[in-house]
Amino acid sequence: MEIDLRRLRAFVALAEEGNVTRAAERLGIQQPPLTRLLRGLEADLGVLLMQRLPRGIRPTEAGKALLEEARVILVRADAVEAIVRRAAQGEQGRLAVGFTSSAALHPFVPVVLRAFRERRPGVSVILEEAGTVELVDALLHEQLDAAFVRSPVGTIPGIAVDDVLDEQMLVALPAGHPLAIDIDQALPLSDLAREAFIFYRRSSGPGLYDSILAACRETGFSPTVVQEAPRLPATLSLVAAGLGISIVPASMRRLGGEGITYRALKDCAGLSAPLHLATRKDNRAPALMEFRRLVQRMRQDHS
């Protein structure tokens, strides 16, 4: 048997007010509909819930038993309604956000995550770091709602991409390297033609990997890659060890690290580190839509 919440609300109002007129005013309805709601509830339960008095009404023993349970049920029902409304408005729920190691180091990403948490404290934010390929796979399998990536993954079926920003690329040189001088002067990319390069594996960051290769070839040389690292931080460790040089997003400089000198590059058109926000095209969850709007607003403030 299903009990109509309207009938329960009517019964509680009658029991608490002890008067049909006052209960009707409290509920904002007329007396006849209120009486019908009570009679319907009594018919559903097969018991008399209210005793009619010369002046007013009061619950029967069965009514008293129902009153305590009805109050609990209505409180829970109101809580459920509030949760559903907050979820529909993007104020409640869960948001899983991924990012590549290089994206996590750009100050924009932690700032926007912090801002979202402040604006939507009722949304549980889950964070995941991985390579671009793993992040896109997690998006497609609905394990993530959004991911900050460097690669232009918008051609993958089912994936939508919002452009966020473009970041300058720097050359990371071992301290003491002949080119690690005049650090305030931009270095022509062609000056790196004879250098040993350390790359991060293409599977970890195909966008940056391909961008560096294309820029070098456009300048007139193919880089000599002597080592590949699984992640950008590991790349810098190899540079610091003197095993070669690398080209990295400017935000990687925030890692610091002894034994590394950074210089800006010039004469390398198209060489930059873009940051994108990837999502599933069919994911219209309110919390995610609010997150995307926040990213775009903060992107405009950042530019």
Automatic annotation (TrEMBL):
Family matches, as InterPro entries: BudR_PBP2, LysR_HTH_N, LysR_subst-bd, WH-like_DNA-bd_sf, WH_DNA-bd_sf
Pfam families: HTH_1, LysR_substrate
Domain named HTH lysR-type: residues: 3-60
Keywords from the named record: DNA-binding, Transcription, Transcription regulation
Family statement: Belongs to the LysR transcriptional regulatory family.
Protein name stated in the entry: LysR family transcriptional regulator
Source species of the chain: Herbaspirillum chlorophenolicum
